[in-house]
Design brief:
The protein is an alpha/beta fold. It is built from eleven helices and 17 strands. The strands form four sheets. Strands 6-9-7-8-10 form a five-stranded mixed beta barrel. A four-stranded mixed sheet has the order 12-14-16-17, with helices on one face. A two-stranded antiparallel ribbon has the order 5-11. Strand 2, helix 2 and strand 3 form a beta-alpha-beta unit. The two termini are 42 Å apart.
Length: 366
C-alpha cells in the first residue's frame, strides 16, 4: 500500500462517473468522444476537468477515482494527469450506476475501511462553486457522524420534466438534512407543477455522500446480487488479478441504477437541500439556461456573425465562420462531420435523430 493511500488519512474520497455517451447532446457528444470530455461551456476546461476542479481543497488527487468505459480510459488519463493511473477504473461494459459505484466503493474500502465518499457525475454544471463546496463539507460532516445514505437535492426553479424529484419529510428547522419520503423519476408537466408548488420536493442531483461501512451494508441488504459478486473480489483489489475479475464480474451484473436498486429501498436515505447554480447539462436547452448570453439572448461559442437572430445556441468548431440570419430559438451545432439545426423547443427529438442516423447512415456519424 502506498503512503498516499494510507487508511489513516481523514481526507474524503471522490468517485466520478464518466462513462456515459450523452446522446441528447449530439452531435457534440459522440461515441468516441462524449460530452464530459468537451469544453461545452467554452471555459477552457472540459466538463470532467471542471468536475475535478470544484473539489480542489476537499479531495486530494490521490483520493479521486474515475469510473469510465474502458474505451475512454486514455482520455481520462490525458485530461486528468494528477489522478493516479490505478485510480482510473475502466468498465468492460456499461451496467448503469450501481455496479459502477459498487466497484469504486469496494476499491476504496480496501484502502480505507472507514472512508467518507462523494459520488458525482462528470457532466454537471455548478455556477456557484463556493456554495457548492460549503454544501459538500456539510454533507461530508454528516456522513462521518451518521450511518446515512445522503443525496443532494436541488431547490427547483421551475416544473422541469427532465429531472427526477425527491420528496422530503418535515423535520427540525435547525437541522438542514431531511429524511427522504419518496423518489419520482421524471414526472409529466402537470405533476411537476404540483411538486414545485407544494414546496416538499427537490430535484434529484445524482450526487451522493456516505461512509464506506454504510454503503457496503446498504448494497448487501438491498442489492445483494451485486454485493455478492464484488465481495468475491476481496483478494484481488489493487492487484494484477483485478482486471480479469472485473471482466467476469460485469458479465454477471445486471443493468441497474443506484437510485432504483438502493436509494428507493433503504430506510436510512436523507437529502440535503442545496442551491448552488446546478444543472445536469443533459440537453441543449439546459446549456442555454446556464450559459452566458449576448445582447440578443444568444449563447455563442463560435466565430459568428448574427443578423436578426435571438434565443439561439450557436456552437461550432474554431476555424469556422458561421453566418446566421433570421433564426429565433434554434440550436446550431457542428462537430466533426455533423451539423445539427433544430428548434430549441424540439430538442427532445435529438435522440430520435440519433436513432435515425444510426439506421440510415451508420456509426460514422455517432
Amino acid at each position: 500500500m502506498t503512503a498516499s493511500a494510507s487508511p489513516t488519512s481523514a481526507a474524503p474520497y471522490l468517485i466520478v462517473m464518466a462513462g456515459g455517451i450523452g446522446s441528447r447532446f449530439w452531435p457534440i457528444s459522440r461515441t468516441g468522444h462524449p460530452k464530459q470530455f468537451h469544453d461545452v461551456l467554452g471555459i477552457g476546461r472540459s466538463m470532467l476537468q471542471a468536475t475535478i476542479d470544484r473539489f480542489a481543497g476537499i479531495v486530494p488527487p490521490e483520493h479521486v477515482f474515475v469510473v469510465t468505459n474502458r474505451d475512454y480510459a486514455a482520455l481520462v488519463q490525458e485530461q486528468l494527469p494528477s489522478v493516479p493511473p490505478q485510480n482510473i477504473l475502466p468498465e468492460p461494459v456499461g451496467r448503469n450506476t450501481a455496479p459502477c459505484i459498487a466497484w469504486a466503493c469496494y476499491r476504496i474500502a480496501q484502502l480505507d475501511p472507514t472512508a467518507t465518499v462523494v459520488v458525482t457525475p462528470a457532466d454537471h454544471v455548478v455556477l456557484r462553486e463556493e456554495a457548492f463546496q460549503a454544501t459538500i463539507q456539510t454533507a461530508l460532516a454528516a456522513a462521518r457522524e451518521r450511518d446515512i445514505l445522503l443525496t443532494l437535492g436541488i431547490q427547483p426553479s421551475r416544473p422541469d420534466t427532465g429531472y427526477g424529484y425527491i420528496q422530503f419529510l418535515d423535520g427540525d428547522p435547525a437541522e438542514r438534512i431531511r429524511k427522504v419520503k419518496t423518489f419520482t423519476e421524471k414526472p409529466n408537466a402537470e405533476l411537476a407543477e404540483v411538486f414545485v408548488k407544494s414546496g416538499e420536493f427537490l430535484w434529484n442531483s445524482g450526487l451522493f455522500i456516505w461512509n464506506v461501512p454504510t454503503i457496503l451494508s446498504g448494497l448487501r441488504q438491498h442489492l445483494s446480487e451485486v454485493a455478492e459478486i464484488f465481495d468475491e473480489g476481496a483478494d484481488v483489489w489493487n492487484t494484477s488479478a483485478e482486471t480479469a475479475f472485473i471482466e467476469t464480474a460485469y458479465s454477471r451484473c445486471r443493468n441497474i441504477s443506484i437510485d432504483y436498486g438502493l436509494m428507493e429501498k433503504a430506510d436510512n436515505v436523507y437529502v440535503l437541500p442545496a442551491d448552488f447554480g446546478w444543472s445536469d447539462l443533459g440537453t441543449w436547452d439546459s446549456l442555454y439556461s446556464v450559459a452566458d448570453k449576448d445582447d440578443t439572448a444568444n449563447v455563442v461559442d463560435a466565430d459568428a456573425l448574427l443578423y436578426d437572430t435571438t434565443g439561439c445556441v450557436i456552437k461550432v468548431p474554431q476555424g469556422r465562420l458561421v453566418v446566421v440570419q433570421g433564426l429565433e430559438n434554434f440550436i446550431v451545432a457542428e462537430h466533426d462531420n455533423v451539423l445539427l439545426i433544430c428548434r430549441r423547443d424540439q430538442e427532445q427529438r435529438v435522440k430520435e435523430f440519433v436513432s435515425d442516423v444510426k439506421a440510415r447512415r451508420g456509426a460514422a456519424y455517432l
